[in-house]
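Thread title: Can someone regenerate the structure for this chain?

I was given the following input by a collaborator and told the matching structure tokens would be attached. They weren't. Posting the sequence so someone can regenerate them.
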Amino acid sequence: MRIEMKILLFDIDGTLLNSGGAGYRAMTRAFKALFDIENGLKGVTLSGMTDAVIFKNACEANDVAFQNHKQAEFKKIYLEFLRVEMPKPNPEKFMCPGIDELLPVLADIPDIYLGLLTGNFTEGARIKLDDFGLNKFFEFGAFGDDNSDRNLLYNYAIERFTKKYGLIPHGSQVWIIGDTPRDIACAQPHNAWSVAVATGSFTTEDLAMENPHFLFNDLSDTKAFLQVLDHRA
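Best answer:
Regenerated them for you:
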């Protein structure tokens, strides 16, 4: 018997929330603590990247030799600083439009499963979500410490879903929701639906060029989003 289920894998930064630069500040402080380099992340792209790749690119930008044990140290220090930075009041820290209404509605619909697909380290993701009270909506997911290649995170998320719920989905039952071209690209090889939302650093025009299945300015129209989930190929 085929079960009609829907698995929604959400990105975090720029899709669910804006941390007000807390992640950037924490990474910058961690890089300084590790290598004594000021502004070590200046010019390094963060959007759509896994945290591991951000660290590697910061090393390259500052002519620092990348080493796995240094990445482990960076991760530990970064998470310590993130716990300090995230709770700080900041007018640029906010939940993205519509998320506060959308997630409770989705959570109450049978056969919809909410998960994460994010470049954040696992604990970093939870720290950010906890600041907005969003952890309760996401019981599984894939994270930046699973693999540095974002396109490979899909398999980790689905494996954890299957282990938790005992169900094996196919690609057309999975929606990947994110604010960058890399979120769209992640869906393509798995035949999953891509839902792009322009609440991050990319405009609707930028995202449209990547040919997502669906494109929103933001997720404030819950009814419109639910209609997307009823779409059939």
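The mean pLDDT is 95.
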